[in-house]
Every structure is written in C-alpha cells, then in structure tokens.
Design goal:
Layout lengths: L1 H19 L21 H10 L5 E5 L4 E4 L2 E2 L6 E9 L9 E11 L2 E5 L3 H24 L1
Antiparallel strand pairs: 1-2, 2-4, 3-4, 4-5, 5-6
Length: 143
C-alpha cells in the first residue's frame, strides 16, 4: 500500500513536470502594481500629487509616503480653508494602501475655528486618487 501511494505521487509529479516543459517563463509586467523606485507605490504617489496639485504643498516624503498640504482657501468660499494629508502605506496598488485625512477651519470674526470635515469629502478624495492611480497604471501597460 505504501509503495502504491509513493508510485502514484511520483507519477503525478512526473506528469505535472512534463506538462510545463518547453514553455518559456512569462515576461515581467513593466506596469506591475508594485513597480517603484521610491518607498511606496509609484502610481498612488503620482496620483496623489496630481490630485492635490491645486493646493500648496507643505511637505512631501516619497520614501515615507507622506504628502502634507498647506492651508488652501477656495476663492469661492473665502471663509473656509482646508488642509490635507495623504499617506501611501504600501508598495502595492491597493485601496487599503492609501489613507487621506483632512482638516477644515472656518473664519469666524477674523479667527480660524476648527470645523468638522464631512466623511464624504475624504472618501471622494480617496476615490479620485485611486481612480487616477489605476489610469496611470493602465497607461503604462498600454505603452
């Protein structure tokens, strides 16, 4: 019985090896989700910078994956300002590799007072960055 089992295992291994023979290995995907020369996913990093390009940048750290903007005042609402921090957490292009935090202040009688940020605002920023990152990856694959 033991010998029969060993023969069956060896036979199945031999068949699997011959089924793979003669084929070359697939080429590496140049636009892989992990391609990076920085500490974090390059598509998420570039997409974050593109998305926040209208805001003044205070700090960027590509190795740590942190982008911090300075306060931005929308010309349409001069009594409100926003500050955004984006953190790219991983080298993989995944939704959970991105974290966005925002601060909002409103001007009351000449003083800036902290105000709540709607969760939908942060979620919308994340969605825009992730969509842009996927578009950048698709463009890299097409080229």
């Amino acid at each position: 019985m033991n010998r029969l089992l060993r023969t069956a295992i060896l036979g199945s291994l031999a068949l699997s090896i011959t089924a793979c023979g003669g084929k070359s290995r697939p080429e590496a995907d140049l636009a892989a989700s992990k391609v990076t020369t920085i500490g974090v996913n390059s598509y998420l990093w570039r997409a974050s910078l593109d998305t926040l390009s209208f805001m003044p940048l205070l700090q960027t750290d590509s190795n740590g994956g942190v982008i911090v903007t300075d306060w931005y005042v929308n010309p349409n609402t001069p009594t409100e300002r926003m500050k955004v921090t984006v953190t790219v957490l991983d080298q993989d292009l995944r939704a959970d590799a991105l974290r966005v935090a925002a601060l909002r202040e409103i001007n009351r009688s000449g003083a800036w007072v902290a105000a709540p940020v709607q969760a939908a605002t942060v979620q919308k920023l994340e969605d825009i960055i992730l969509t842009r990152a996927r578009d950048l990856r698709r463009a890299a694959i097409a080229n």
